[in-house]
Amino acid sequence: MTQRTPLYIIASQHPRVGKTLVARLLIEFFRLSGRPLIGYDLDAREPALAAYFPNLAWTVDIAETPGQMTLFDRLIADNWRTTVIDLGYGQFEQFFAVMAEIGFEQEAKHRLIEPIVLFITDSAPTTARSYAELRRRLRHTTFVPVHNEATSFMFIQGDFPPTRPECGVIRIPRLSPIVRGVIDRPGFSFGAYMANQPGGPTEVHSWIASIFAEFRELELRLLIGELESSLRGLAKQSAGPTT
């Protein structure tokens, strides 16, 4: 079985729900494994992700057609390395509209790229409707809901079903304001903090470890799902045409 390269799209319909935080965590999780990696920050006005990773994350403005072409051409060319996109509310509609319009899902499948949307949930009714609409439009993209407990008290799982039940929900535990102030400092590295534990593990260490464990679990579930799909395809080929 040839494994597909993941393309993670961290998306939110509203500001200040922890989207860039999730993108940062995901990038640092992948960096610890040493895999080839690239990031894209689609907020050209305030590129927060690019500020944390100036040598890894590219800023791309998709407000106009040239920027859209640049981004999707790069995504196809980067099929050999894991990609993380920080997609904010300002670019939300446009990005997914272009993705559907150009048939990116089909090209991604041809290039062995697996698009995975980590969708930051919230309690607004329009968010659940948007999630359902995106799943309908992009049937070959994997959707995984993310519940950030610091920004959303309620999470109704029935409103945000993952594309595949085994993918589950990624939960970002709440942090105290003091600890949040630590991780929001310019230049703060989750990976470096995990490697340096003077005086024993802190609340921050436990918080990062729990989220990294969720990312590992998701990757394992995606891999198992891909393997099962491949085995079903082989079984159908072996069975041959029915009469």
Description of the structure:
- The chain is α/β, with parallel strands linked by helices and 243 residues long.
- It is 47% helix and 16% strand.
- It has 9 helices and 7 strands.
- The protein has helices at 19-33, 48-52, 65-77, 92-101, 104-110, 125-137, 177-183, 190-195, 203-239; strands spanning 5-11, 37-41, 57-59, 82-87, 113-120, 142-148, 170-172.
- Strands 3-2-4-1-5-6-7 form a 7-stranded parallel beta sheet, sandwiched between helices.
- Helix 2 (48-52) links the parallel strand 2 (37-41) and strand 3 (57-59).
- The relative contact order is 0.15.
- The model has no long low-confidence stretch (mean pLDDT 91).
Please sum up the structure shown.
With 243 residues, the protein is of the alpha/beta class.
Features:
243 residues, alpha/beta, 7-stranded parallel β-sheet, 9 helices, globular
